[in-house]
Amino acid sequence: MRISQRLIILFVVITIGFGGFSYLxxxxxxxxxxxxxxxxxxxxxSTIDTIFQxxxxxxxxxxxxxxxxxxxxxxxxxHDESWAKxxxxxxxxxxxxSLVQVYDTKHHLLYNSSAKPIxxxxxxxxxxxxxxxxxxxxxxxxxxxHNSTIAAIAVSGIHASADTTRSNPPFGYLLIAQAWDYKxxxxxxxxxxxxxxxxxxxxxxxxxxxxxxxxxxxxxxxNWYDKTIAWLVFYSSNPFLNELRVLGNxxxxxxxxxxxxxxxxxxxLIQQWITSPLKLxxxxxxxxxxxxxxxxxxxxxxxxxxxSLIERFFIQKHELVLEIEERIHAEALLKDIEEQTxxxxxxxxxxxxxxxxxxxxxxxNDETLRLVAVDYEADLTxxxxxxxxxxxxxxxxSLRSIIQDLRQGSYIKNLEITLVDAQGQHFPALxxxxxxxxxxxxxxxxxxxxxxxxxxxxxxxKLRQAQKMESIGTLAGGIAHDFNNIITIIAGYIxxxxxxxxxxxxxxxxxxxxxxACLRAKNLIGKILTFSRQSEVSVKPIVLADIIQDAIPMIRxxxxxxxxxxxxxxxxxxxxADPNEIQQVLMNxxxxxxxxxxxxxxxxxxxxxxxxxxxxxxxxxxxxxSSDYLHLSFCDTGRGIQPDIITRIFDPYFSTKGIGExxxxxxxxxxxxxxxxxxxxxxxxxxxxxxxxHIYLPVSDHVDTAIPAIDKAEYPFLxxxxxxxDDEASxxxxxxxxLRDAGFNVQSFSDSTEALRVFSDNPKAFDLIIADIAMPIxxxxxxxxxxxxxxxxxxxxxxxxxxxxxxxxxxxxxINKLLNKPILPEELVREVKELVYLKKKRIxx
Length: 845
Description:
Layout: H1 3-67, H2 70-78, H3 81-87, H4 90-93, E1 99-104, E2 109-114, H5 128-137, E3 139-146, E4 149-157, E5 172-179, H6 182-192, E6 195-199, H7 207-212, E7 215-222, E8 228-236, H8 239-287, H9 302-347, E9 351-355, E10 361-364, H10 366-371, H11 378-381, H12 393-407, E11 412-420, E12 426-437, E13 443-452, H13 454-498, H14 505-532, E14 540-543, H15 544-558, E15 564-569, E16 574-577, H16 579-597, E17 603-612, E18 628-636, H17 666-676, E19 680-685, E20 691-698, E21 721-725, H18 729-741, E22 745-749, H19 752-761, E23 768-772, H20 780-790, E24 795-799, H21 804-812, E25 817-820, H22 825-844
Parallel strand pairs: 15-17, 21-22, 21-23, 23-24, 24-25
Antiparallel strand pairs: 1-2, 1-5, 3-4, 4-5, 6-8, 7-8, 9-10, 9-13, 11-12, 12-13, 14-16, 17-18, 18-20, 19-20
Helix pairs in contact: 1-8, 8-9, 13-14, 13-18, 15-16, 16-17, 18-22, 19-20
């Protein structure tokens, strides 16, 4: 508790003590005043009672005088009015009484006289039971209220003067009443020195009464029935009591003033001597500022000594704070290093193992546990495992040599080595190692950082396979281009020959068959290019049966003819997929079947049907039971698959083929493509009984809207000068010959640069340009671009290998026609006629 708070508590205690003393003194003075007041009130009440007794005695004495009077007896008998007026009227005139009445024994009023200032009292009639009671009580004195007037009634029987004991029956009754009017009360107040008030209801003490009076006496007025009918209230002011009260108040206020002055002086002195120095000291300690207590250094008291101690404390505190800060900084740095090390161990994607100098494992991170296939670090550290256990026997000596080199202070960086896990599985790894020194710079521990190269090796294999597939695609494109040129020349000359043989029907039929063979070769080359081309996935509704039919020629060409291909297609429903990816699935499955049936060969059965999803209830939880599926099956008569590996055939890089015969990606690609279209794949096989791969694809509700074929318009011949450019001279000559036969003037070139030179000399000499795209030095698209800079002229380009890149380049320069080889001469003639006609028509309009 603070000193200031303690001082406040002390002041409060002293205040309570003085307050208690003041209260006690005040209480004594108040009790003294109360006792004095009670004594004074008692005396005054006794005086009042005495006064009323005297008045009552006087009234009763007068009543006795008149009621024991023989003349009064005579009056009750004779009813002499003159006598009554003479002898009874002085009671209300000479005496201060308000009412005199005489009744006979039958309670009849014989005489009634009242004081004039008092109104209504003349109608007063005494109660019969009061008069009846005089038979036993002889005489009565009581108070009564008539209307609003209070009267003191004295009544007795009238007897002869000799009957002082009133033992004989009365001759009548005499009543003398004193009304308590204002005059009576005023006389009574003056005789008692009181203020007197009469109230018909019980009076309530009001604050105003205590302001003017210090004595109040209430006297109830009761009637003959002992019921209170009014109250007399006597007020008086005692000057001695007032002076005593004022003197007590002066003493109390004087004492309180002294206490207040004492407290103020004590507070100021304590504030100056104690509180102010303590506040300076407290503020100095709170603000950590020794300059605040400088003002009390010069004082020759205890606080100056305390200030000196505090200054020394601040100096020592500053030194201690510097030392603590240095220690905290060192501890924080150490903690950061420990936290960094812990985070590195926990989050590092590489295995980190710390061993002693003999290779015994001391600690290992989570990646190490995953790498060596153990669940807990204690599995390595708890049994004093050595890092040599991670090396296969053939690499044990090499790892032991590495430990020896590390002890000598050398280090190992990125050493590729084969390691083995707890399950005996070998894996390639990249190891770096160094020594950890203690505070004396001596080798104390070894640290090994190991990276698992399994995924990297897998990626390298994937990259090589991708590069191989890209090379195959490029090679297929080049071969297709040259092959298309050959097919185009053959088909062209066959078409020209067919037009020249006349009516030789047999020869014409032979030429037609040769032309059909060329067209089949054309379609086959197109499918090969489609399969080998790397393009974006184009997902759309397709008829799976059509894709299978289109792929059969490629499958037939890719596997030996000794394998019999049987197809059974019973559904032509749609599914949503990319045609090229489905062709890849078919080619991969047929290739796998071919390898499984070697060397005896056999039968490959391909079937397609439509089934309900409910039939696949046990296949996969993701099957939509309310949907329909296309069921494609590839069934071969090969050697089958062992039961222990059939669950792994869809894993990437899993292969049962020999070295160099496969990549292990075929079935995994099939699985990835089919599941990507919300389909399902599973295989059924038994050793020696072949294998069947079942594929299920959701049926699409797509409805094909047949578009009526539009017959190509036949355009009339219009003469034109044509430029024919192709690096294949025989092909250029073939097309030129066909165009000349159609009536066009054709100038042929086998060198694109020469053709550009000739066109540059006279751009208006030609109406249309025809060129091959694949040409050396200046390809067809570059030639067309340079020609368009000289003149806007219609251009036809053709190619034996059209990919997205070529198509985009052609569209950029707005080529009029882009044709794919092989092209028959009549097709080229038709395209030229169309462009020449449209050009002439546009010029004419």
